[in-house]
User: Fold this.
Amino acid sequence: MKEWKKNLRDIEPYVPGEQPQAADVIKLNTNESPFPPSPKVKEAIASFNTDTLRKYPSFVCPELKAALKENYPVSDTELFLGNGSDEVLALCFMTFFNSDKPILFPDVTYSFYPVWCSLYNIPYETIPLDENFNIRCEDYYKPNGGVVITNPNAPTGIYMPLEKIEDIISHNRDVIVIVDEAYIDFGGKSAVELIHKYDNLVVVQTYSKSRNLAGIRVGYAAMQMELTAALEAVKNSFNSYTLNSISQAAAAAAALDKDYFKKCTGEIIKNRTYTVSELDKLGFKTMPSMANFIFTTHPDYSGEELFNFLKSKNIYVRHFNKPRINEYLRITIGSGEEMTSLVSALKEYVK
Ligand code: PMP
Assistant:
């Protein structure tokens, strides 16, 4: 064996859902929005002064922070921005989880968390969700090096009321608690306002789902100033200019178009209700979702079989071959037309 091979980093990466390129595919596998971004985003990009691209982007992102402040009661120094919430979360793990004690997160949750733990050598312990896939707050009342809660959880879609989130934060005042709110805008209530009450809270959100902008890679987090300062120091030891200027302008425009945001998220909620009730008639058991996806299973057909059948019909959904959830499909809520096609395909298969 060549000597240098011994020094290669060996890591099992996170594997995202497929991105099929064919035009005729119904893509319900990565929780993207079926709707285009706000028309204001189109205007912002069309009028973008490309001459400014010769310069590095602003790393304080004033325009984008001003737009975000229209939506949340936070100040500039309480906001941290990154290239998608994955980058924000990765930097948070690196900055906040440096204890010898394990960090805690549920056994069924976003599967990127263990990957960052292994990348940064962070000890972790997964806490089983209860038999109905709910988080039990008491399970998080023990010594740990940090806590990560996704709310609503993924891939279950199950939402935890803010009182319970607060219960977990208040029982963990000696460590940082991250609340990953990638899917909060489809019916849930954000924990952002709690950052003023708890100096150990970090709330992370994304432009990829409810803002219809997965392609521009913008995510952000809210927390008290001392934490943003620590996070900025780590980011600036890695890459100072994470967010490009065009993404900053587009994201600012999207944040300001509140009507369009409400219209799109409202449409997703309506299509979710429709899909759940149609699947119910076919015998599916679906977890109560507050996200832009549902997690569903059928007593008579395996998850893998349903996944393969839908794929043969050019309908891409997500199937996780993992303990506890391998009989489930995670289906992104798309447009009305896409959901009708999904339901008719399943009607054909599930007799
Ligand atoms: N958190 C959760 C729970 C997610 O499902 C995702 C999407 N894969 C992300 C964070 C990251 O999203 P993005 O990097 O597009 O902001």
